[in-house]
Amino acid sequence: PRVPQRIRFGIDSNSRCAKPLTVESIHGRKMKSAAIMHRIFGMNEAAWERHANPWSVWTRSTALPLLILAFWSRAWIGRWSILAILVAVLWAWLNPRIFHMPRSTDNWASKAVLGERIWMERRRAPVPARHRIPPAVLSCVSAAGMIPVVWGVYSLSLWPTLLGSALIFLSKLWFLDRMVWLYEDMHSCRMQAWMGE
Length: 197
Fold this sequence. Notes:
Layout: E1 6-9, E2 21-24, H1 32-41, H2 45-51, H3 54-59, H4 63-72, H5 74-77, H6 81-94, H7 108-120, H8 134-155, H9 158-194
Antiparallel strand pairs: 1-2
Helix pairs in contact: 4-6, 7-9, 8-9
């Protein structure tokens, strides 16, 4: 059965779901955070829906290595590295847009994207307590990984770059796995409310 586009419900705060909570259809709603992303990166609703395609999720993992190589290439091709950097940035921008909307979101990658959209709206629609701290910590770890990456690329030092990249990738994958868990918890809460449980 189809879940109604907007469901309002309250569930005991000791349960997996937050109280009070408003959950709208993930595919259909216009979200404040999404609007911010749209202004910064041009991520509108259509781009988010396309980004839920597993191909988009997995190929986006190439964005950071390509950017690193592009900046590093200044040691090999000098000023031509600007062109490489522009190509890498263009790929990062195009990635969420070039794939079609997935036929099904019943997979790890799609759920990770949908869960991330829920996470972005956590101040307006609170998430369950167990999902509030770990993703924030993982985001900080990922951001911290940028420090050795930036230093490594600036100084053309391999080991800081590899260390920072590993920290970013591992924390990001863990973050996405938490987003899958968040999506499944919230989806379960929506179904319970819809079915009157």
